[in-house]
From TrEMBL:
InterPro entries from the UniProt entry: Diverse_substrate_MTase, Methyltransf_25, RlmA_N, rRNA_m1G-MeTrfase_A_prd, SAM-dependent_MTases_sf
Any one Gene Ontology molecular-function term assigned to this protein's record: methyltransferase activity
Protein name: Unannotated protein
Pfam families per UniProt: Methyltransf_25, Zn_ribbon_RlmA
Keywords of the record: Methyltransferase, Transferase
GO biological process, one term: methylation
Gene3D superfamilies tied to this protein: Vaccinia Virus protein VP39
Feature: compositional bias, Basic and acidic residues: 209-219
Coiled-coil region: none
Lineage: unclassified sequences, metagenomes, ecological metagenomes
Residue ranges of domain Methyltransferase in the record: 98-182
Amino acid sequence: MVRARGRRAAVNQVLACPHCSRALDLTDAGATCANGHSFDRGRGGYLHLLVGGRLSPTVTSGDTPDALAARRRFLTAGHYAPIARALAEAVGIPPGPVLDVGCGEGWYLAQLSHEQAAPGERFGLDVSKAAVQMAARAHPDTQYVVGTAYRLPVLDHSVGAVISVFAPHPFDEFARVLRPGGRWVTATPGPRHLQEMRPVPQGESALKTAERLARRSEPPPEASSAVHVEFTLELSDGDARDLFLMTPIRWQSGARVADAHVEASASATVDVWVSTSEPIAK
Ligand SMILES: C[S@@+](CC[C@H](N)C(=O)[O-])C[C@H]1O[C@@H](n2cnc3c(N)ncnc32)[C@H](O)[C@@H]1O
Ligand SMILES: [Zn+2]
């Protein structure tokens, strides 16, 4: 038996077979569909539902073990608690299970109350196996899945809320999997997010930079409402280093350039949109 101690069985009628899209029946050992496709559980009970070849290395560049460990340390310390609070408020009491797309190591989903998402009604998905393994070990009341946001292994109209925090947000996929009355909630960077740490990407013109930041001055146009969360973090050297390690800034700028910025900055601006869709029509 592979069931991790304390793991709460996830509800059925949410996950779909990545080969044929039929409902997956979840057991202690794994998951099977009516067409006989089967998937074993990995350690901690996660399911690997990514099919169709290897993803390019750039897709997973943010999930190296040091990035994941840094993110866990930084988030657990509570530096981003105001974002989690705004997210939880936007999620409200959803009409069904909650799915976290690009869940990383699972911190934001774990901040929701049991009233918002009961044990067994929490699903986290990430393309990074390393992130999902880490999440599954830490949060036994959540069903974690390795899969892609762009083709969610999730049944049509099966979840009450989809959240995506600094992660891909294909809204057509979100609309497909949401139940009537359900909503998606995203957290995306605003124009000043981590500006102290963010060097201009090499070779980018001033005009291009201005255009890129202007796009961030509004929440996603698909949102029906949005809350702007802005605050300043005072960071120890260790915190600043973790923040740098866990964000894509590291990959965009080249580690040595950004390292210098980290050492120079004791404070960092957090500027985030927490955006919500209209409820899906009944
Ligand atoms: C910046 S991290 C955010 C992680 C987490 N939501 C948090 O804020 O702590 C972005 C996450 O999106 C995941 N990701 C990237 N492309 C993805 C895809 N196509 N499908 C699912 N997850 C993806 C990455 O593996 C990574 O864990
Ligand atoms: Zn199948």
